Amino acid sequence: MDGTKRVVLITGCGKGGIGYEYCKAFASHGCYVFASDIPDRLHDLADLASESVEPLELDVSSDESVAAAVSEVLASRGRIDVLVNNAGVGSTGPLAELDLDDIRRAWEVNALGQVRLVQAVAPRMAARRSGRIVNVGSVVGAVATPWAGSYCATKAAVDAMSDALRVELRPFGVHVIKVVPGAVRSGLGRANAERLAARSWRLYEGFEDAIAGRAGASQVGRATEPGVLARHVARRVLSPRPPRAIVFGHMTGLFAALAWSPLWL
Ligand code: ADP
């Protein structure tokens, strides 16, 4: 075991998503990576397994699973240098018609999932006066997007929590970095498109046409490749002076500049 490698724990690393690419990117910087996901997706992680990437079961919506996974990492490596809160689920559809259980699930995974991990990991980082916590949000947290109102709300919560956490943990030498991607050519984007295609919503006649006409080709064409985003994030998170926010993707800088004031904190 190489004790000098930085230990990175990443959530939501199933194949096809950004988390999978984060694992490769952090490993390429010489880190030891715990690549985690829910039990159903663990088979996806087999390709990643190597001398510097170790698959790990971790369901961010379960207190027990988070406690067990963090204990396992600490027992094996003694510390966590970087936590990447990446796991997420979508909830696509008009807010007035979305299933409440879908909305609850999105909060449970996207927002509370990050809190669970932070509560399990941050006190140990603070005690060591060292660590980096990366919370993955989305530009739609700053720019409300029709048919993604529930998802947007959870990402707005990630944004607000990350800003508070950054100020709270700074005195203890722990950096909190929020990542704000725009459209990414990855799992959630595809899942949303499929769900949109599969349903016609009661309230909105002609919904699919509207989506195809407005949100279609131009946005998708400008979506970022997950590997490009992941490599950029890993490099900046591991730099000696990590940034407070990493805003990445077509037009995201402009949206963020218009929407946020607290960057100066
Ligand atoms: P994207 O990479 O575009 O954000 P994905 O759907 O590919 O979207 O990635 C989200 C990841 O989060 C998936 O690997 C998924 O299995 C994972 N995930 C979903 N729910 C949970 C959960 N409760 N705990 C941990 N990971 C989860």
Summarize this structure as a short list of keywords or feature phrases.
alpha/beta; 9 helices; 7 strands; 14% strand; globular
Short summary:
The chain has 265 residues and is an alpha/beta fold.
Q: What are the distinct ligands in this entry?
A: adenosine-5'-diphosphate
**Helicity range of the residues?**
40-55%
Profile the largest sheet. 7 strands, parallel
The largest beta-sheet arranges its strands as 3-2-1-4-5-6-7
| Beta-strand content | 5-15%
Structural class: alpha/beta
Between the first and last Cα atoms, what is the distance in angstroms? 39 Å
What sequence of helices (H) and strands (E) makes up the elements?
EHEEHEHEHEHHHHEH
Total beta strands: 7
Rg over CA atoms, rounded to whole Å, is: 18 Å
Low-confidence stretches: 211-221
- pLDDT averaged over residues: 86
List the total number of helices: 9
What is the 3D form? globular
Blueprint of the fold:
Elements (H helix, E strand, L loop, with lengths): L6 E4 L7 H11 L3 E6 L15 E5 L5 H15 L4 E4 L14 H29 L2 E6 L12 H21 L4 E8 L5 H12 L8 H8 L2 H5 L4 H12 L7 E4 L3 H8 L6
Parallel strand pairs: 1-2, 1-4, 2-3, 4-5, 5-6, 6-7
Helix pairs in contact: 1-8, 2-3, 3-4
The site of adenosine-5'-diphosphate has 23 residues, from helix 1 and helix 5.
Structure notes:
- The protein is built from nine helices and seven strands, in the order E-H-E-E-H-E-H-E-H-E-H-H-H-H-E-H.
- It is an alpha/beta fold and about 260 residues long.
- The chain is globular and about 50 Å long.
- The termini are far apart.
- The structure holds adenosine-5'-diphosphate.
- Adenosine-5'-diphosphate binds next to helix 1 and helix 5.
- The site of adenosine-5'-diphosphate has 23 residues, from helix 1 and helix 5.
